[in-house]
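Bumping my old thread because nobody answered last time. Still need a sequence for this structure:
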C-alpha cells in the first residue's frame, strides 16, 4: 500500500438542483458503499482518500448527510437514501405530521399548475413566511431522522478528516467586496454544520423568504470584525454551485485534492429548438440551467489555468514557497446527462420538475445516479480528466480500482429490509 502522502486526495463537489439532486443521492450512495467495500477488502487508502465534500442547495444537504459521522461508509450511504425517502411527497404517512399526509396530491396539483405556464399569464406570488417555516421545519426533521439525531439537535457533526463546504449567498451584500457575499458553511467546522446553515444554502427565493442566520460580522470591505450579527441568505445557486475554490484557496498543498469529482445536475447543452428556448417554460428552464452552471464553468476554468501553471513549474528547482503550493488536479464529472436522456418515470427534466417530489420520479433519479456513478467508475472516467480540462496538465499516474457492481453492494443493507428491497429495485438491470 502507498504511503499516505502518495495516495491521491479526493474531493467531491455536488451541484444543486432541487429535486433533481436525488440523482446526487444515487451517485453518493454508490460511491460510499464502494468505499465500504474497499475498506472491508483491506484496500481503504490504496486508491484515494476522501478529504472533502461540498455542495449547494439540495447538493449541500445530500453531501452533509453523507458526511455525517458514522461507523462506516455504508452508513453514510444508507442515511442519504433515508433522507430522500423521507423527502418524497408520498402517500405513506409514517413519520410525518398530519399536515403532510396529503402532500402526494398537493405535489401533483402543483406540477399540473406549472404545466399550464405556457398558456396562461405568468403570476408571481411573494413567498409565504408561514410556508417557509413549515417546510424548513420538515427539512430539519428529515435530516435528523435520516441521521438518527435527537429531536432538538441543531447541527450535524462530520467525519474526522473530511471537510464540508455548503454554499449560500448573503442577500444584503457588502459595498466594497462582492465576493464577501459568497459564504460557505460550516462557519465553525470543529462544531459541525448547523442545520440552519444547510437551509440557508437551500433557500430558493421563489419558495422561501430569505433565511436569517447569525454569522460572524463583516465590515464594508467584507473583512471579519470579530463580532456576530444576523444576516439573510438565499440559495447558493447565486454564489457557488457547487463550491470548488474552497478546496484550494488558503490551504497547504498537502490538503488540496489531486482528484475532484463533480456531480453535475444542469446540462451544458440545450437540446430544444435550434434557435433556442421559445416558450415561457423553455426559457425559465434554460435560464435556471445557465445560472446553475455559471459559477461551475468559471471555477473549472480557473483550475485549468492553475494546472497549466503547475505543469510549467513542476521541473523548476528551488521554487519560492508560494509557487511550490501549486499542484495538478484531475477533474472528472458525473453528469445527469443530455436532454435526450432526461425523461424519468414519465417526467421530463425541466425547471418545474425540480420541485417535483413524486416517489417514482425521485426513485428514477436515484437509479440514474447509481448507474451513472458505476459506469463512470467502471470505465475509468473518474481518474481521467473531463473534456473541459487540458489533459496534458492533469495527473496521469492515477490507478483505477476494480469497482463493485451495484447489485453486489446489497450486502450492506442486511438488517434493513425496506432499504434492501429499494436498493434491489434501484439497481435492477445495471450490469
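Sorry it took so long. Here it is:
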Amino acid at each position: 500500500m502507498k504511503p499516505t502522502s502518495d495516495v491521491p486526495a479526493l474531493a467531491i463537489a455536488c451541484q444543486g438542483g432541487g429535486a433533481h439532486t436525488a440523482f446526487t443521492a444515487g451517485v453518493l450512495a454508490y460511491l460510499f458503499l464502494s468505499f465500504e467495500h474497499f475498506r472491508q477488502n483491506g484496500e481503504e487508502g490504496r486508491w484515494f482518500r476522501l478529504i472533502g465534500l461540498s455542495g449547494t442547495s439540495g447538493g449541500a444537504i445530500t453531501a452533509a448527510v453523507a458526511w455525517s459521522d458514522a461507523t462506516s461508509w455504508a452508513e453514510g450511504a444508507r442515511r442519504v437514501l433515508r433522507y430522500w425517502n423521507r423527502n418524497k411527497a408520498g402517500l405513506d404517512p409514517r413519520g410525518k405530521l398530519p399536515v403532510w399526509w396529503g402532500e402526494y396530491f398537493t405535489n401533483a396539483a402543483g406540477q399540473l399548475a406549472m404545466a399550464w405556464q405556457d398558456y396562461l399569464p405568468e403570476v408571481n406570488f411573494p413567498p409565504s413566511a408561514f410556508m417557509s417555516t413549515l417546510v424548513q421545519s420538515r427539512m430539519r426533521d428529515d435530516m435528523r431522522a435520516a441521521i438518527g439525531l435527537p429531536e432538538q439537535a441543531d447541527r450535524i457533526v462530520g467525519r474526522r478528516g473530511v471537510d464540508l463546504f455548503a454554499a449560500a449567498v448573503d442577500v444584503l451584500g457588502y459595498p466594497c467586496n462582492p465576493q464577501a457575499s459568497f459564504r460557505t458553511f460550516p462557519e465553525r467546522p470543529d462544531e459541525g454544520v448547523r442545520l440552519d446553515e444547510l437551509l440557508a444554502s437551500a433557500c430558493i427565493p421563489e419558495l422561501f423568504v430569505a433565511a436569517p442566520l447569525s454569522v460572524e460580522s463583516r465590515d464594508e470591505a467584507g473583512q471579519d470584525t470579530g463580532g456576530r450579527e444576523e444576516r439573510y441568505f438565499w440559495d447558493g445557486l447565486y454564489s457557488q454551485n457547487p463550491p470548488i475554490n474552497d478546496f484550494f484557496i488558503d490551504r497547504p498543498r498537502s490538503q488540496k485534492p489531486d482528484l475532484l469529482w463533480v456531480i453535475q445536475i444542469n446540462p451544458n447543452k440545450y437540446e430544444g429548438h435550434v434557435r433556442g428556448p421559445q416558450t415561457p417554460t423553455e426559457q425559465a428552464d434554460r435560464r435556471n440551467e445557465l445560472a446553475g452552471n455559471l459559477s461551475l464553468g468559471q471555477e473549472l476554468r480557473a483550475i485549468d489555468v492553475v494546472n497549466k501553471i503547475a505543469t510549467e513549474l513542476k521541473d523548476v528547482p528551488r521554487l519560492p514557497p508560494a509557487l511550490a503550493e501549486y499542484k495538478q488536479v484531475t477533474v472528472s464529472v458525473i453528469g445527469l446527462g443530455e436532454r435526450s436522456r432526461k425523461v424519468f418515470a414519465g417526467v421530463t427534466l425541466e425547471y418545474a420538475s425540480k420541485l417535483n417530489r413524486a416517489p417514482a420520479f425521485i426513485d428514477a433519479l436515484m437509479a440514474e445516479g447509481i448507474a451513472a456513478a458505476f459506469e463512470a467508475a467502471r470505465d475509468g472516467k473518474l481518474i481521467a480528466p473531463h473534456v473541459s480540462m487540458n489533459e496534458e496538465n492533469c495527473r496521469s499516474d492515477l490507478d483505477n480500482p476494480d469497482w463493485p457492481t451495484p447489485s453486489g453492494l446489497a450486502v450492506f443493507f442486511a438488517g434493513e429490509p425496506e432499504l434492501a428491497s429499494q436498493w434491489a429495485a434501484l439497481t435492477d438491470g445495471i450490469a
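Residues 280-313 form the longest helix (34 residues). Let me know if any region looks off to you.
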